[in-house]
């Protein structure tokens, strides 16, 4: 996991598998980021090869916890990440984008 800040927006990049074993690490990273009160949070799953239900639950709960306090988006493009999120309807809860740039644009990060 890696965290990058662009102003007050945070990008959490995940690599490898996001499952029951690794989801707690992402939870910890997200909690640390949320403690700094970002205006937007993007979780980048571009380098994730397997997304289990534990990871999807974490994304849904993160969106719910943030509420209206910050924008939230997920970068997930492809059969391992984007397809499962869409199949279970998480694309109806939050934005799912092909690139970090698209997610940041949608959240209007860096726009005045």
Characterise the protein shown here.
The chain has one domain (2-106): Transcription Regulator spoIIAA, CATH 3.30.750.24. The model has no long low-confidence stretch (mean pLDDT 94). A five-stranded mixed β-sheet has the order 1-2-3-4-5. With 112 residues, the protein is an alpha/beta fold. The longest helix is centred in the middle third of the chain and has 14 residues, at 53-66. It has helices spanning 23-35, 53-66, 82-87, 100-106, and strands spanning 2-6, 9-18, 40-51, 71-75, 95-97. α1 packs parallel to α2. The protein contains four helices and five strands, in the order ββαβαβαβα.
Helix and strand content put the structural class at alpha/beta
Morphology call:
globular
Distinct helical segment count: 4
Low-confidence stretches: none
Q: What is the CATH first-level class name?
A: Alpha Beta
Please tell me how large the radius of gyration is. 13 Å
Question: Biggest sheet: strands side by side, in what order?
Answer: 1-2-3-4-5
Question: Please, what is the CATH homologous superfamily?
Answer: STAS domain
Helix/strand order:
EEHEHEHEH
Domains (count)? 1
* Alpha carbon gap, first and last residue: 29 Å
In terms of DSSP E residues, the strand content is 25-35%
Helix content range:
25-40%
Number of strands: 5
Mean pLDDT: 94
Largest sheet: 5 strands, mixed
CATH topology: Transcription Regulator spoIIAA
CATH architecture: 2-Layer Sandwich
